[in-house]
Amino acid sequence: MAYARFGDDSDVYLYQTEGGLFVCCACRLVDKSGGWYLVRTMPTIAEALEHLQEHRNAGHAVPQYSFDALRADTGD
């Protein structure tokens, strides 16, 4: 399931794998290697929420619905 996808309102692409890991694809917060952004993986919803906030703090566009959907999945 994707919580955010690249687009006009989003600079991030965050999804959950079938195994439960959260993946920030082509993450701008990870050092580039050979000109390509790398992925960042997080094992928990709490870490994924924290990571999205790091993107916002860096000035990247992150839609509010991404936070809302992650929080809804925690039951909070």
Strand order of the largest sheet: 1-2-3-4
Structural class assignment: alpha+beta
Kindly estimate the percentage of residues that lie in beta strands according to DSSP: 15-25%
Taken from the alpha-carbon principal axes, the silhouette is globular
Q: How many β-strands, per DSSP?
A: 4
Query: What is the gyration radius calculated from CA atoms?
Result: 12 Å
> Low-confidence parts lasting 5 or more residues at pLDDT below 50?
none
Largest sheet: 4 strands, antiparallel
How would you sum up this structure, described in words?
- The protein is of the alpha+beta class and 76 residues long.
- The protein has one domain.
- 32% of the residues lie in helices and 16% in strands.
- It is built from 2 helices and 4 strands.
- The protein has a 4-stranded antiparallel beta sheet with strand order 1-2-3-4, with helices on one face.
- Strand 2 and strand 3 form a beta hairpin.
Topology readout:
Blueprint (H helix, E strand, L loop, with lengths): L1 E3 L9 E3 L5 E3 L15 E3 L2 H13 L6 H11 L2
Antiparallel strand pairs: 1-2, 2-3, 3-4
